[in-house]
Give the backbone structure.
Amino acid sequence: MKTRHQEADDVVESSMTLIEDSESQAVAPPPLTEIEAAGRLGLKVATLRAWRHQGKGPAFVRLGRAIRYLKSDIDEFLASNRHRPRIAENV
């Protein structure tokens, strides 16, 4: 018997399939768990949870009690928080 989380994962996986046309299919990568997302960002899971409760951090998907992150949302979050160093002007 499957748990609710396993059923939610199955639903997410099946809904992430994108059909381009009748001859070929493109499959989106499966959503990331909190642990996978935290690892990808180099953070602790507790940090992601705190950010979620504060309305910060990357966008997430809630499926019942399960939290998932899309790779595209993680990539977008990283890109939007990218900073380039400024060149100091000699005065």
In short: Helices lie at 4-15, 34-41, 45-54, 71-80.
